[in-house]
Structure formats: C-alpha cells, structure tokens
Amino acid sequence: MNDYIKVGKIVNTHGVKGYLKCLPLTDDMERFEELKYVYTEKDNTKRKLKDVWYRNNMVYILLENINDMSTAETFRDSYISILEDQLRELPEDSYYIFDLEDMEVYSDDGEYLGKVKEIYQTGANDVYEITNKNKSFLIPAVKEVVKKVDVENKKMVINVIEGLLE
Questions:
Q1: Which of 22, 113, 123, 143 has the most crowded Cβ, counting Cβ within 10 A?
Q2: Which residues have a Cβ under 8 Å from the Cβ of 93 and sit 6 or more positions away?
Q3: Last residue of a domain, one of 22, 54, 86
Q4: What is the pTM of this model?
Q5: Residues 38 and 57 both lie in one domain
Q6: φ, ψ for residue 35, nearest 5 deg
Q7: Same domain, yes or no, for 77 and 147?
Q8: Residue 97 φ/ψ, nearest 5 degrees
Q9: Which pLDDT tens digit goes with each residue over 110-135?
Q10: Tally of CA atoms within 13 A in the half-sphere of 24 that contains its CB
Q11: Alpha-carbon span 76 to 29, nearest angstrom
C-alpha cells in the first residue's frame, strides 16, 4: 500500500539554516515529533527529520540534506508526505480526510446527492462540501446528519434534515 499521504504544505523558509515553514494538514500537528522521516514531493526523496518545532499553528522542520535558505527556498509551495503505514489508528467514527474525498453521498432513502469535494475544518465540527453537477451544498459532520460512512466502498449516507439541501 505504498500510497503517499500529505501531512504538510511548505509555505516558506525560516532562517538561514534550511528550516521549512509548513502548514500542517493534520489535526494533531505535534504528530510531526513522532515521525522519523518524511518524503518531499518536489524530488520524491525520503528525508530524515532532524528538528521540529511549532509557532502560531505552523510547523517548522529541518530535513536531511536541506542545509541552507537557498536550497530550502526550492521546496516552497510543495508538500511533505508520509507512507500509509506511518498513519495512526483512528478512534471509531473518525476518518482521514483523504478517505472522505470523492466519497459518494446518498440520502437515507437511497437518493444520490453527489460527492464530497472539500472538507472544511471549522473547529466545532468538520463541514463537507457535496457537489453534484452544478449544485453544491454544505453538510455538518455531526451524528444527527452523517449516519454511515463506508470507507471501503467510498459511500456516505446522510439524514437529510429540513433545510439542509437548500
């Protein structure tokens, strides 16, 4: 299952020693401390994590063989990833964003509603953007609405409460 999972987007450099400023693509940004290595998208290279620290909801990392600002600058606007076997086990009724993307969504009476195109992390609960042709609507990721998520078959069933699809 050698699938790459994006865990951060490199948005800038920091300092002159090659640190990369990353926007974390994970709920638990301190997860980076557990990682021994990541893959850089730009050159598809496995790199050892030499240092990690945090400030203002950003992750600052120093990677093997990126030792100066000029080299670090070439990685801007690219991603760092891990392999699927580096993922943590999630609690029941929790899902990785990549598992939900493009999932087909049906009402609890079997009507096809569209596909999950975007997931917004709002703090209180996630919100899924469902699109079908030219229509788009937002549904809250709460138990009253999302009734079933079948990751294996890429299918979600929701309870269409009054006003939800308007």
A1: 22
A2: 143, 149
A3: 86
A4: 0.67
A5: yes
A6: -80, 135
A7: no
A8: -55, -45
A9: 999 999 998 887 777 888 999 998 88
A10: 19
A11: 19
